Structures are given as structure tokens and as C-alpha cells.
Amino acid sequence: MLTTLGGPLPQRARYPKAKTVHKARKHPAVEAAMSAGRVVTRAAGIVSASLRPAPDFLLVGAKRGGTTSTYFHILSHPDVLALFPSAKLLPKGRDTKGTSFFTYNFHKGSIWYLSHFPSRTQRLVHQRRTGHAGVAGEASPYYLFHPLAAQRAHDLVPDAKILIALRDPVDRTHSAWREQTRNGVETLSFEDALDAEETRLGREAERLVAEPAYISFAHEFQSYATQSRYAESLARWFALFPREQIHIWASEDYYQDANATVAGITAFLGLDPKRLPAKEQRLNAAPKSDMAPATRERLRRYFAEDVAATERLVGRTLPWPNFA
Predict the structure, then answer these.
(1) Distance between CA atoms of residues 142 and 144, nearest Å
(2) Please, are residues 37 and 31 in contact by the beta-carbon 8 Å criterion?
(3) How many CB atoms lie within 10 A of CB 256?
(4) Rounded distance, CA 246 to CA 303, Å?
(5) Residue 246 and residue 7: Cα distance in Å, rounded?
(6) N or C: which end of the chain has fewer CB within 10 A?
(7) 125 has which bridge partners?
(8) Burial of 79: CB neighbours in 10 Å, binned 0-12, 13-18, 19+
(9) What is the pLDDT of residues 93-110, one digit of tens each?
(10) Per residue in 187-234, pLDDT tens?
(11) How much is the pTM?
(12) Is the bond preceding residue 321 a cis peptide, omega within 30 degrees?
């Protein structure tokens, strides 16, 4: 049943400006055209939201765990439908990946959320044309860590299948710091950023729960080590969604054999994995930099207990190089 589930307007977020190559290359005319196109197509989606089924799956994280590469690899399956509007309708290089609805767009309401997904008509046309049912979903990797996202998702889409990629926490932590450094919003060294993390985060998680409209840059982007402690985040999702609705893989599995990993994901989604084209890609990858051995050892000790708890939750030994 269509609802207007949502929350209060968010507080103004003071996010540092990212100095990315992607943004630097945008021409004002192109950006204006894209902005106008987004307004028109979103309005069309909202008007027809009652005809748009809820997503079949959510790829919820973890951030810097290969989620972008994996999502677009999943999208290459002919029976996975892109979010609305398709990149074919806008001057975009690729389809939209996610909505961030269950984190900082929640105030926009469920009608806005459903406006992003393929209509029943589109699904029916796909099935008649191909003989196969289509599925659709989004990837918003902050969902895993945000303290309210799991409950919000369960309230609106309790039948959605939940996809989770988990990366070696030592490597994920360093990768998250490198990303913010490249973007020009992190000025501290890796070791200093780790030392500053407790102060930066403070009681941000508690405030996000107490003030649903609050948006925290530190919680999303400067929780380098804290966000790599997966057990607590997994427990929130496990408490709300049946285990048979949750599919977890190690990012290292994807890096080792992307096609086999995504074949397993598409089979979990009820699709024929044989229809998945072979694909080799790494999106959002970046040059690696060395980590001081002492820092690596510090992080190994810091994560050891949480890794053990995570492995108990997922029921397998994870192929993480730093914990072999």
C-alpha cells in the first residue's frame, strides 16, 4: 500500500566541498541540462509512484567494499532493471546507483522513494519481451552503518532482499581515508585521523537516533575504523530481516572472481545466473598507498574481536588478508 512515510526536514548539512575530477569537469550548461532533466523526470516518477512496485533488493554496504562495481555488474544482468529515469533519458554516463532514502533523504517520503523504481508496465513489457521476470533495486552503502536505516527499510520494504559486501576492515579503513584525502576534505595523516576519530564522532550516532532529521558528515565519512566494525551493524539488519533474505559476500571474493560472485548474487535474487554476461570492471578504484607496518598491526589488534564476532554472525571464515 502506498504511503507517505517520511520524516522531518533535515538540518542543513555542512559538508566540505570535495575537489574531485568528476566535478571539476562538469560544464555549467551540462549541469543545468541535467538538473532540469532530473526535475522533470522525478516529477513524472512521483505522479506515477502508485504504479511503481517497491524494490526487490537493497545493496546496503559496506562503503569502500566494491559496492559500486558490484551493483553495476548486477545491473548488467538482462533481467535487472535500472532505476528511473534510465541514463538513456538523460545526458548521464551510467544509471543511477542509489537514492540514500533511508539515510538523509528520508524526509522526502515513500512516494518520492518509489518514484525511482520501474513501473509495473515496464516490468510487464520486459517479461513479455524476454520471457523472464525483471527485478530492480538500489545500492546505498551508508545504509549498513546508519543507525536508523535498517528499521526504516524494514518498515517500508520488509520483503526486500538485502545484499551486503564486507571488506577486510583494515583495508576498508585505509581506503575510506584515502578517498577523503583525494577529495580534499581530509587533511590529517592516516594515523592522526585514526587518533581524532573518537573525538570527531563523539555522540554523533546517538544524535542521529535522537534527532531523525540530523545529518552527520563525521558519522558517514570520517568513521574510518568505526564503520569497519561490522558486527553491530549486521546485528541491526539480522534482527529485522530473516536470514534467508540476506546475502553476504566478502569483497575479496569479488576482487578474486567477480563473475562467480555476481552469479551467486543473481541466483539469490531468483534470476538465471547463466544469463549474466562475463564482465571485468573495477569502478571507483584508486591507486593504493602503503600503510606503516605499525599502523597495520594496530588495526589488526583493534579489529580482532569484531572480526571474530562478524564471522560468527555470517557463519563463515572470511578471506581477509590481514586476518589469515
Answers:
(1) 5
(2) no
(3) 11
(4) 23
(5) 26
(6) N
(7) none
(8) buried
(9) 788 999 999 999 999 999
(10) 999 999 999 999 999 999 999 999 999 999 999 999 999 999 999 999
(11) 0.89
(12) no
